[in-house]
Amino acid sequence: MSVCVACLSSYLQDYSTGRYGKLPLHQSQSRPNRKRTDISTLTAQNDGEHVLVRARIQTSRLQGNKMVFLNLRQRTNTVQALMTVTKDNISKQMVKWAGSLADESIVIVEGVVKKSPEPIKSASVSEVEIHIQELWLLSGIEGRLAFSLEDASRSETAPEVEGQFNKVLLETRLNNRVLDLRTTTNQAIFKLQHAIGDLFRNYLNENGFIEIHSPKLQGSATESGASVFKVEYFKGKAFLAQSPQLAKQMAIAADFERVYEIGPVFRAEDSNTHRHMTEFIGLDLEMAIEEHYHEVRDLIDEMFKAIFKGLKDKYAHEIGVVRQQFEAEEFKWRDETLVLTFKEAVDLLVEDGVEREALDDINTENEKRLGRIIKAKYDTDYFIVDKFPLALRPFYTMPDPDDPTLSNSYDFFMRGEEIMSGAQRIHDPEFLCQQMRAKGVDPESMKGYLDGFRQGCPPHGGGGIGLERVLMLFLKLNNIRRASLFPRDPKRLEP
């Protein structure tokens, strides 16, 4: 590999010239097909092997003028690399240059894997280190980092020590999100986010569902005008979809039988809480019912348990990485999920001291309280509440056949917070119009939706899940913004 012309003169008297330096701008000049090594695969069995690695310098440490240690990072994995002065190959100039490289620089390293006599505590790959023979700067950094990755990776419970390290606040992280996303914790978090979507999709595919893609521009508000974003649409107006609810139901009316969608959901709610965003990823599903809406509830329940098991079995490494920064009890669920009626949930809260008059609806504070009660009594972080009052649900929710004040609806909870709301939907057009009017919705404003039911539609139900909320609660990240790549809330549209 060649060095840039501007650097050449300083290397003329350096016997390491040709082994280090800044590479020319990468413009795909050649393709030699040299094998690259993923550092996560390195073990003691690789002792003596020659490797070629692209990685970031997480930290560096000069030892005098003859030795430098580099901590190299690829996503969630780190390995120690060592460069020492040798008589013929590694010069003092090369060591000094290596020690001067800024943290977060991207480098190409060639070297030999050496088994370490004892575990290296500062790296996730602890059995070996790389003895550097060549070091090339592929991409440096401009200016000063907003914070160090070392500070950004510390345990959330670690006390701040003045002069030693600084606690990186969430606002600072989000303002410098690209840098923040490089931490091994965030690399693991978003691999787990991918895993949840993948497990959701795989389970439903195996159970006869097909994936659909519904429009996010709507001609009318799907749930209520108060929480919808209005946008200009040529000479008229349109709305950003609050959910794919209407499209899912119309797909059932079109005989798709079982459908799901993974896509953005928009809510114009001025909520600045730990669990609300104005845009999030919805995991939505809808299916025809043969006999009873509990067919839907039970399928969703089995799906969630498959997701939890898949995360635990296949992504233990990533969960462990997150636990180093966000310490939390392992998420627990039961083989047979605890299912309570809304009335039974209210009774538990009343027994715990909450006034019954305050429980027409279960607010966020009492949701968490219910979660604590259930964890103490049943040792589970996951449960279902069924049979919500009809007054609390959207216009398309089917009432209970025996008690018209109740509904065939359910919410799913993790660690005392709601993660999914669902129900049997009204499939009869006349009854649907009646319920729309009762909720203050003009049926004429949703004619296209209603027409599907007028042409015959099977009984059906489903639910909508917030991806980021599931991720936040499974890992106990304490703020949904940590579970969103580039979060959007009432105060944030950048980056």
Task: Give the number of helices.
Answer: 14
Give, in spatial order, the strands making up the sheet with the most strands.
7-11-12-17-16-15-14-13
Distance between the termini: 36 Å
Structural class: alpha+beta
- General form: elongated
Helical content band: 25-40%
CA gyration radius, whole angstroms: 28 Å
User: Overall mean pLDDT score?
Assistant: 93
**What's the count of strands?**
17
Proportion of residues in extended strands = 15-25%
Sheet with the most strands, sense and barrel status: 8 strands, mixed
Uncertain runs are: none
Describe the structure.
- The chain is an alpha+beta fold and 495 residues long.
- It contains 14 helices and 17 strands.
- The strands form three sheets. The protein has an eight-stranded mixed beta sheet, with helices on both faces.
- Strand 3 (67-74) and strand 4 (77-84) form a beta hairpin.
- Helix 6 packs across helix 8, helix 6 runs antiparallel to helix 9 and helix 6 (184-206) crosses helix 14 (467-475).
- The model has no long low-confidence stretch (mean pLDDT 93).
Summary keywords:
495 residues, alpha+beta, 17 strands, 24% strand
In brief:
The chain is of the alpha+beta class and 495 residues long. 29% of the residues lie in helices and 24% in strands. It has helices at residues 5-8, 92-100, 149-152, 170-175, 177-180, 184-206, 245-253, 294-314, 316-325, 342-351, 364-378, 429-438, 447-454, 467-475, and strands at 20-22, 50-63, 67-74, 77-84, 106-115, 128-139, 210-211, 217-218, 230-233, 236-240, 258-266, 279-288, 338-341, 382-386, 409-414, 417-425, 460-466.
